[in-house]
Amino acid sequence: MVENRKPIWIKEATEMVMHFKKRGSFEKVSLDDCDGRFLAQPLKADHDVPPFNRSPYDGFALRASDTIGASRENPLTFEVVDEIGAGSVSHYELGSMESIRIMTGAQIPQNADCVIMLELVQEKKHSNGRQYIVLKRPLQKGDNISFQGEDAKLGTSLIKQGEKINPGVKALLATFGYPEVPCVKPPLVGIITTGSELLRPEEDLVPGKIRNSNGYMIEAQIVRAGGLYKRYGSVADQFKDLLSIVKKAMTECDIVITTGGVSVGDYDYMPKVYQSLGAELLFNKIAMRPGSVTSCAQKDGKLFFGLSGNPSACYIGFELYVRPYIRYWLYSSKPYLKKITGKLKSDFPKANPFSRFVRCKLSIENGHVYANPVGLDKSGVVTSLAWADCLAVLPGGTKGFAVEDSVEILMLEDQEGSEDPWIESRFSKL
Ligand SMILES: Nc1nc2c(c(=O)[nH]1)N[C@H]1C(S)=C(S)[C@@H](COP(=O)(O)OP(=O)(O)OC[C@H]3O[C@@H](n4cnc5c(N)ncnc54)[C@H](O)[C@@H]3O)O[C@H]1N2
Ligand code: MOO
Ligand SMILES: [Mg+2]
User: Fold this and answer.
1) MoaB/Mog domain location, by residue (predicted)?
2) Å from CA of 4 to ligand 3 middle
3) Ligand 3 centroid, distance to 14 Cα (angstroms)
4) How many whole angstroms from 265 Cα to the centroid of ligand 1?
5) pLDDT tens profile 184-199
């Protein structure tokens, strides 16, 4: 008799996975190699930025009080007593009607309080070799000065713990002097693909076989989520081989992912593998499509995700359950896929008892956000995954959906995330 599995809600499955959530340990990573890593500590300004008042222009630094009354009719002449480029400091103390030639980025001399651009003065050289400028407008104290601390004040919190290091964050790390960056050590995720039909990418197609795409897809999803992966290769549908490779992965990795072999077929050995490991099965059927067979087991707090063999089901199972686990590990306060609201771009007339995650491409038309379904909506499909950048969620129920219907959309390429997962808002009987 084939086993009749009882589906659970997405909400329950999410809670069961996150019940085992863990935070990673910390490690120092060279600034050169920290791109895409996650900050282990909040980043606070430990000095003002900029650290001194500086000139935003190539020009002349002056005392505003000396410029009072300057006009076209009453041009005022200032002697140029020093000159400084960025990185140099003038120790000259300006006297009455004196100026210092200053370049962009140079520190404002001690008693100067304004700057005028080169283009706005007339430069003159006296026969005695002295330099002068003629000014035809008055300046206010503070004109054309980038003030110390205007970018960031000492003590300000700038970046939260668990934020992904993007180019801007990297610039801040350099600004505040981090040749070594405190990063969260990512979880190591072991990947085992299962199936006697699977070929390697370099192998030619032969009857009955297909190339393994899930393995590479999941590796890329792990990297996008911020994890590290270890490839355990593809295992034919043979129980003993599968069990021994899962055992090996379990001792070497923080999380183990398998793809395929989780359903009720004759060669679907994952349920038996969990049993032999003495792992506790958390779930093996969720009220969602695709991905209803997504399974999860735990042993000593370590999670085994049994993702479907069907590529689209595998992909969505990862994004909904594995990604948040990885992001939480990396100290994210928003570990779930980012949710936005938009409109459906085409009809979806067939009602689904289970909530459906439709692979879509996002577009903005006349100020409205649309989710455009892409490709064939079947769980065995691989092509639509390459075209999708979001998932439109069609909640399970008795009615279909029509073009322009408002839907929640989960963003696949986003880095910010959501504090809360998408879960069912209405619960009918399962
Ligand atoms: N009698 C039933 N049959 C099935 C049920 C069911 O409830 N009762 N559920 C169906 C659903 S839904 C799904 S989803 C699949 C899940 O199957 P498995 O997770 O056990 O995966 P496999 O049987 O091993 O493979 C399914 C499909 O995916 C292809 N595959 C597998 N691995 C890869 C890979 N690495 N790269 C690309 N494609 C892969 C495989 O060749 C199969 O076509 O079960 C349904 N059946
Ligand atoms: O798990 Mo299947 O993908 O629901 O079609
Ligand atoms: Mg199967």
Assistant:
1) 190-328
2) 14
3) 23
4) 9
5) 999 999 999 999 999 9
Residue 71, both tokens: 């006009």
Domains with residue ranges and CATH for the chain = 10-28+185-329 (3.40.980.10), 29-50+150-184 (3.90.105.10), 59-135 (2.170.190.11), 339-411 (2.40.340.10)
Contacts within 8 Å (CB) and 24+ apart, 125-131: 130/79, 130/80, 131/79, 131/80, 131/101
Residue of 212, 263, 285 to test ligand 1 pocket, by largest number of atoms within 8 Å of CB: 263
Name which of 13, 15, 18, 17 is nearest 354 in CA terms.
13
What's the confidence (pLDDT) of residue 398?
A: 84
Q: Is 263 in the pocket of ligand 1 (CB under 6 A)?
A: yes
- Which tens digits make up the pLDDT trace of 47-71? 999 999 999 999 999 999 999 999 9
- Find the residues whose C-beta lies inside 6 A of ligand 2: 289-293, 308, 310, 313, 379
Give the pTM. 0.94
Q: Tell the burial category of 273 from Cβ atoms under 10 Å away from its Cβ (0-12, 13-18, 19+).
A: buried
Cα 310 to ligand 3 centre (Å): 9
- What are φ and ψ of residue 17, in 5° steps? -65, -50
- Is any atom of ligand 1 closer than 6 Å to the C-beta of 213? yes
Contact 257, 229 (CB under 8 A): no
Phi, psi angles (nearest 5°) of residue 342: -155, -165
**Mean per-residue pLDDT over the chain, rounded:** 96
Whether 214 is in the pocket of ligand 1, judged by its Cβ within 6 Å, is: yes
Across 162-176, average pLDDT: 98
**Per-residue pLDDT at 429:** 67
Query: ipTM value of the model?
Result: 0.98
Mean pLDDT, residues 314-340: 98
